[in-house]
Here is the input.
Amino acid sequence: MMLSRVAEKLYWMTRFMERAEDTSRLINAVTLMTLDMPGDATFGWDSLLKVAGLDELFFEHYPEANESAVMRFLIQDERNPSSIMTCIAHARENTRTFREVLPWESWEWVNELYLFAKKALPGELDRRQRYEVLQGIIRRRQSIVGLLSGTMSSDDAYQFLRLGRNIERADMTSRILDVSHAVILPTDTPAGEQYNDLLWMNILKALSAYQMYRRHISVHASSTQVIGLLLHDLRFPRTINHCLTEIADVVQALPQPESVMVSVRTSQDMLASANSEALAKAGLHEFIDQLQIGLTRIDTALRERYFRLPEIQRPSPSAEGASDSE
Amino acid sequence: MKIACDNYQVSDAFDELIGPDGHPRPLARGLCEYISGLGEQELAGRIAAVNAAIMTSGITFTVYTEAGNIDRAWPFDVVPRIIDAREWERVERGLKQRLRALNLFISDIYNEQKIIKDGVFPLEVLKDSKNFRAQCVGTMPRFGVWAHICGTDLVRHSDGEFYVLEDNLRVPSGVSYMLENRQLMKRLFPEAFGRYRIKPVDNYTAQLYDTLAALTPRPGQRPVIAVLTPGIFNSAYFEHSYLAQQMGAELVEGADLVVQEDDCVYMKTIDGLQRVDVIYRRIDDDFLDPEAFRPDSCLGVPGLMRAWKKSTVGLANAPGAGVADDKVVYTFVPKMIKYYLGEEAILPNVPSYLCMYPKDREYVLANLDKLVVKPANESGGYGMLIGPQSTAEERARFAELIKSDPRNYMAQPTLSLSTAPTLCEEGLEPRHLDLRPFVLQSDKLYATAGGLTRVALRKGSLVVNSSQGGGSKDTWVVESAQ
Here is the structure.
């Protein structure tokens, strides 16, 4: 028995957690990337905001997208509903509302992550501190994932956690992939190709995918191969294909999943037809947009099917029958 | 921070652990020896560990302030209060007697009103009762029980006797802190548990489950039980979630429930609607059902009263039970016990003056500086006048309030609440305390061994409510020291 409201909260709790983790990953990747770039390359901080889908909101509060403003906005600004701090606070508040369905320690661990973030995040973080603190967040969040997968029955509650995690992860992997868009390398430099490799290597590192890529694919990080891996590879848990497969798995096992499955299949079909070689040359950004729209469609279908039950579902049709005959 | 009982300042108040001669009472001797034997460093280390545990396990209490709601860690004092089991046995009988009489009274009030006809209880008190629910007239819940969960506040006066201060029959809270306090204590002083035979409190949630399960309209199958909470912003949310978790019940909000044409209550689940048998509601009557009470409530469930009156769902506490949770009605409880049970009250009330009676009112107005004045239906320590600590201006304001609405006020002499050694910055100091045991009734009666001891943490203060900055202690009902 799973209350609709609790199912929705579980789903959003892991989405918030995953978003906090993946935003930390995104920022760490970008930080490492800017350290590697040649002097005449620029990093479009405003493009990073676009990648995160937060550019409009940002400019409501800040005049200029420089590094410190963008970092502050993404990491600790409470006016940003997707900032790491806001996500962790939301996840914690949500967890408080369904402690009874999770392993007992979960709340303590989530709370510990919150207390850590609350202590570490305020104040100006320089690049070095930033990296350390965000690693701390990733590590704590990963221990929560481990706790849940190691001590929780695969009941309905667990399935909704899995669902939220994979939807958000697919979305964030696509956004991290899109960061390539934000780097403007100087044209016609002989070193251009080498920096291009560095860029894709950092994208892999952001997803903790670099080592697996090297083991299974190549030592060199080429755009085609990285895009191919992150879209299609089923072995690595942060690829879009892996996430969509997990989503399909969970949804199929839920009661009356047909309407939701339609939208999951649409996204899977779109992914299957994607050619990484072509996308590496042109159109990656637009394709990622389409992917994100597909994920939003799945989210809407879930909400309509499981989270917002129509007020009246009549077990006995007698009342309706009576009014018809009058 | 030395814990020693040597230089403890004994006052005029009754002290729970230290006798008037400055020596520990017989049952407290072992505890005092044990604590002072621990050594300063050891003790400080253990307290720090427990405070850290309180923080991470999020045992919190939400306090409403102007700056928004603050989640405060539960203030916990490490020195337990000790009560002799032989003494407790009598208190327990008194508490059960009281709840039996109160439930008979509520049933009578919503049905024949014999007690009024027989001239034992005045009609005018009922007429102006804020918690009387006309919607409940003619209803008789299972076992004739309305208040299934009662939190009775007791204080010990300087004469050493326990007095009943009030009965909370609506949505009394605090029991989760009683349970958590014991858990914390076991982590803090495990060795002390070997020295005493302490009555356990952990079985409360199982007793609560049985009390609720007995109300199911579908006996014979495992009942579906839900705890109905106003939500995360309620100050007792921690407790709602805790109790649901401990009983394996569903924690629901109003919007999770729906009453169908068949007058049954259902929960909205991912599998569709599931029938609910018993609801332990933790929201006030006013908000329970917008069809029957406040139409603007979005916390409640439309049609819930309809379902309850048709007996398709059990509700604890039943709507309307608050009629006996009125500080004016309280003064009549000893008479109710005599009237319904033919027994003398085992636990005395605090002597009270009813402002509705001219003679009492005159006395109250003339002695405002000595009395505690309480409105009939507030809780959480709000809206009170504590005479000896009040200003002339406050007394003038209360005089006006009393004159304009005499039925709504009662007054009691300022009791000297008992004290117990409490760990303060300078070491052990006496702090005033009260006690809230919890009593359950459906087909059976049950009372907790001890209850929640609340402590006024400020020196000299008599206000122990958690919403007003009080703390708490573990309460030991001790059979013997070993």
